[in-house]
Amino acid sequence: MKKNIENIELLVNGEELTTKAGNLAGLLIELQRDGDVLATALNGEFVPRVNRTTTVLRDGDQIELVAPMSGG
Amino acid sequence: MTIDTALLQLYDIRLSSRLLLGTAQYPSPTVLQSAIESSGTGLVTVSLRRESGQDRAGQAFWDLIKQTGVSVLPNTAGCKTAKEAVTTAQMSREVFETSLIKLEVIGEEDTLQPDVFGLVEAARLLSDDGFQVLPYTTDDLVVAERLLQVGCEVLMPWGAPIGSARGLNNPFALRAMRAHFPDTPLIVDAGIGLPSHAAAAMEMGFDAVLLNTAVAKAGDPVAMAAAFAGAVESGRKAYLAGAIEARDMATPSTPVLGTPFWNSSV
């Protein structure tokens, strides 16, 4: 039996987010960030761009979305 | 005349300028761009930060840096553990498309001084993963040895705490470091406030200086960037030219022999 897609709760850059996205690539599309220059991490581990589609999201996951910024 | 024809080599990149510049805290993107130009630098530091909003500030910043044509050295600023620093470095490599990483693992908030234990650990993991690591470290020689052992080919000892503008807090230790590692590219990173501080580091034989706040927060960052460029170049030339030793007593610079009335008792 096919399981219905359920809402899951994530922490995205430290903020709570409810989503139906099943994987990291889907989350970026939902956030309209899929075309942006950014890097991703899941629960403290780097997720390369090529692995976003296969990176399944689970309730309670912590996501980092980071973009270029000035630095010293 | 001694001419410095050698380019600064940091891993596989070669730079004609020995001034490395940070990109933070400038009054505007335009000023940043002009300061990069007037500094003559070929390598600037950049970072990654959370961006949840839709303003695409990161993209705009990255486009601006790319327009300048300089190479980038991403940092792991703000990381407090080796694990955070490694993940940040991996994300940086993908976004900035470079294996260079300015490795910072901060151990203490008041001085922002490196956690040298986490630093060595992160440097080992990153070097093994193919990164070209430029560690922000102290002037401790034992830590420096460990960093080289785990694969670092460049070291970046602090001049003084980040943003403090105090210059070279411990010239003795920096001189000892230069003497102990004659063949390792050494860059004084952090704490530089004045062009004279940068010149002093270069006169000691350091290969380059990396600074940010002293330019970015100056009254006229573009003019200050040019001032630092001149100081770094002068310091380098002085080092290559070979400075005289300091002494406690005077020694006449005008020849004594033939001085009028010399030995005259009148």
Describe this protein with a few key phrases.
heterodimer; A: 72 residues; mainly beta; Ubiquitin-like (UB roll); five-stranded mixed β-sheet; 1 helix; 10% helix; globular; B: 266 residues; alpha/beta; five-stranded parallel β-sheet; three-stranded parallel β-sheet; 39% helix
In CATH, the homologous superfamily of chain A goes by the name Beta-grasp domain
Low-confidence stretches of chain A: none
Radius of gyration of chain A: 13 Å
Overall mean pLDDT of chain B stands at 94
Beta-strand proportion of chain B: 15-25%
What is the SS-derived class of chain A? Answer: mainly beta
Q: Fraction of residues of chain A in helices? A: under 10%
Counting DSSP H or I runs of 4 or more residues, the number of helices of chain A is 1
- CATH topology group of chain A: Ubiquitin-like (UB roll)
> Which sheet architecture does the biggest sheet of chain A show?
5 strands, mixed
Estimated share of beta-strand residues of chain A: 35-45%
Q: What is the CA–CA distance across the termini of chain A?
A: 54 Å
Q: What is the approximate shape of chain B?
A: globular
Condensed summary:
The complex is a heterodimer of chains A (72) and B (266). By secondary structure, chain A is mostly beta strands.
Polypeptide structure, described:
The complex is a heterodimer of chains A (72) and B (266). By secondary structure, chain A is mostly beta strands. Chain A has one helix at residues 24-30, and strands at 8-12, 15-19, 39-42, 45-47, 62-70. In chain A, strands 2-1-5-3-4 form a five-stranded mixed sheet, with no helix packed on it. The model of chain A has no long low-confidence stretch (mean pLDDT 92). With 266 residues, chain B is of the alpha/beta class. Chain B contains nine helices and ten strands. Chain B has helices spanning 29-39, 57-68, 82-96, 116-128, 141-149, 171-180, 195-203, 213-216, 221-241, and strands spanning 8-10, 13-15, 19-22, 43-50, 71-74, 100-103, 132-137, 156-157, 187-189, 208-211. A five-stranded parallel sheet of chain B has the order 5-4-3-10-9. A three-stranded parallel sheet of chain B has the order 6-7-8. Chain B has a two-stranded antiparallel ribbon with strand order 1-2. The longest helix of chain B is centred in the last third of the chain and has 21 residues, at 221-241. Chain B is globular. The mean pLDDT of chain B is 94. Chain A binds chain B through residues 12-15, 31-32, 36-41, 44-46, 48-49, 64-72, and chain B through 22-26, 32, 45-52, 54, 56-59, 61-62, 65, 74-75, 77, 83-84, 87-88, 90-92, 94-96, 162-163, 212-213. β5 (62-70) of chain A pairs antiparallel with β4 (43-50) of chain B.
